[in-house]
Amino acid sequence: MDVPLICYDCGNTATLAVGARCDCGEPYWVATDPKGFAWPESGERSLWRYRDLLPDADPTGLAAGAGGTPLVRTPRLDDDIGARVHAKVEGSNPTGTFKDRGSAVGVAAAADAGYETVGTVSHGNMARSMAAHAASAGLDCLVLVPADAPAERLSLLARHDPTILRVEGDYGRLYDESLRVGRERGIAFVNSDTPLRVAGQKTTALEIAESFAPSVPDAVVLPVSSGGHGSAVWKAFQELREAGLATELPRLYFVQTAACGPIAEAWERGDRTATPVDGGETVAYSIANADPPSGNRVLAAARATGGGVIAVDDDAILDARRALSTDAGLFVESASATALAGAHRLAERGAFEGDDDVVLIATGTGFTERDVDAPAVDAATVELGALDDAVSERMD
Amino acid sequence: MDVPLICYDCGNTATLAVGARCDCGEPYWVATDPKGFAWPESGERSLWRYRDLLPDADPTGLAAGAGGTPLVRTPRLDDDIGARVHAKVEGSNPTGTFKDRGSAVGVAAAADAGYETVGTVSHGNMARSMAAHAASAGLDCLVLVPADAPAERLSLLARHDPTILRVEGDYGRLYDESLRVGRERGIAFVNSDTPLRVAGQKTTALEIAESFAPSVPDAVVLPVSSGGHGSAVWKAFQELREAGLATELPRLYFVQTAACGPIAEAWERGDRTATPVDGGETVAYSIANADPPSGNRVLAAARATGGGVIAVDDDAILDARRALSTDAGLFVESASATALAGAHRLAERGAFEGDDDVVLIATGTGFTERDVDAPAVDAATVELGALDDAVSERMD
Known about the structure:
- Two copies of one chain form a homodimer.
- By secondary structure, chain A is α/β, with parallel strands linked by helices.
- Chain A has a domain at 66-96 and 195-369: 3-Layer(aba) Sandwich (Rossmann fold).
- The first copy, chain A, has helices at 78-81, 99-112, 125-137, 151-158, 171-185, 195-212, 228-242, 262-269, 295-305, 314-328, 334-348, 387-395, and strands spanning 4-7, 13-15, 28-30, 71-73, 84-89, 117-121, 140-146, 163-168, 188-189, 219-223, 251-257, 308-312, 357-362, 379-383.
- In chain A, strands 4-5-13-10-11-12 form a six-stranded mixed β-sheet, sandwiched between helices. In chain A, strands 8-7-6-9 form a four-stranded parallel β-sheet, sandwiched between helices. Chain A has a three-stranded antiparallel β-sheet with strand order 2-1-3.
- In chain A, a hairpin with a 5-residue loop joins β1 (4-7) and β2.
- The radius of gyration of chain A is 21 Å and the shape is globular.
- At the A-B interface, β4, α3, β7, α4 and β8 of A face β4, α3, β7, α4 and β8 of B.
């Protein structure tokens, strides 16, 4: 595909046909010219509202339905965070996570370019998203998963009937190998930090920004795994600054799970480079990336915006997940709850002022983890004839 | 609450403080004056875009995030239906179903009127939705469920920490009793066909209509249970006609599960009144309402629009559910799949022309039924070093 790319770090340029990674080792993203971009006046609700900042594509089916998710105030979380808290509800995407944004752009662009097969390396939300978007577009889909991926998760994926291959070997190497195999065999791989996916993921931030226009929020807090989404959020705000629509960038805070937090560890050390870790078990398994391909790019984003990268432990993640359900009505996956857990920790360090607008990106629905930390059900049984008494006993 | 009501059948008027049902036995809906209503120019994405047609309320939190769901084309379903098929993806609401629209309006109006507690009779999607919206708004929530409601479903509900009461006795009577108890004890019950819920549910149809403006779709096909949603869709198109925004109404087709289809049975008999049935087991349990409170109103809607009411069996429902996953990328609950199953059956009867625009309302996410009809996972295991061969074997 003839999409123009540029390296965020060294400025090298290329096109997507050549590859997703610069010779300097860092990932490319799509080169754009945001000058003259204005907030659209169209009534378009999906992410294609921002098509002037996206690669050319003619979306149909599910691809046309991604994005346009709610940004809701969560006033009952304000006191704990010491700021005005908002949540971007990415679970409202068609397959229940933010991944649909990148899949929509990736699959639409691949279909336009004549690809008949798309692919991805994932055993979770991204795989489901790619398979669903491919199904809608009538493309074949190849999903490469680790050999030990739990059958339960693959069962959800299999609903959309992709070809699934379990691959034995290093997961980080599989990521790169899949891109090579894809180039050689005409399969459009849209992995977690590849340029088309990052282009689509920008729209999370564009929607947030438009909600606050002409202002911008003071801080955005989001989970980080490969670093693709985090990179995209940074890119979006950079583009808005170039377009004259944001005079300053929000502080971007990225949150990892402590059991597997290579980017947070690098940040703590003051390093510009994330190095692989031996990740442990964590409830936030979907962001447990031991060797994140866009780790350095996220470190750059945190530095450039005055933000940071932190890690939170499983107890804090589960506490935050419960608080989102009971105090904001949002049932999210554990990985998403890291945003609130991280915001708590940042608040303790004095990161926010009382009049700050802090946006948590709730990246995905909790339905994928309905059995995790399931509450006991406390429900008395009463006769219909005794309803009045039972209600007044409990609710008065 | 001082919301003006009118009976769709006999024209009697009342206010919500008095009750939800007319002396003639039929349900009230909210009286509106749609004359002068025009499609809004605002960029508001939620259902509050249509606040000129809604009861006064000042939504915050989750209530402000309901609605604004995608309407997507599903071209791979066209051939089977013999029409241009679209799906309204209601699973994109904050708690994963269309119920959030009614909950948003009901909870926001109750909060504005000073209620501290809201309630509902439901053991499924509506209960989860009410509990989540109450949690977000800081209201208490009372959920009345049948004594035999499965613990698994209550566990999802309990995430939002409502007070749950299991009630032994007739479910139809519980519906009416809850409204009386609510009036007497100052609890705002928002049941499945009560006026505020129906007002919120109108917005499904308003969004569909605006997507087709200045035209309207030829047919809308949706599941029907209590008849609240179906009534709301009818009301919305009536309002648009009054406002001069729809010269004719789409044919409204309502689909029930054959195991429990009192409205479809009445329609087949040519009756204007639905009578209770002894419902059997069905995969589409969430629309298995043996004594639907708005059954007659749905029959009126089908007559008035030249549509109909039909029933489909579990095999057809599961086939349709699989087709939505594999050919449209939409993983929906079984009850939602009745819309496609019903459209198939209607197509066989010659209900559609090739250039008809047919909208299926996919009422809720499939995640709530992830174990129902789960596919076997067919995934070979290969070594990373053998990836090239494995891929070319399968994808060339």
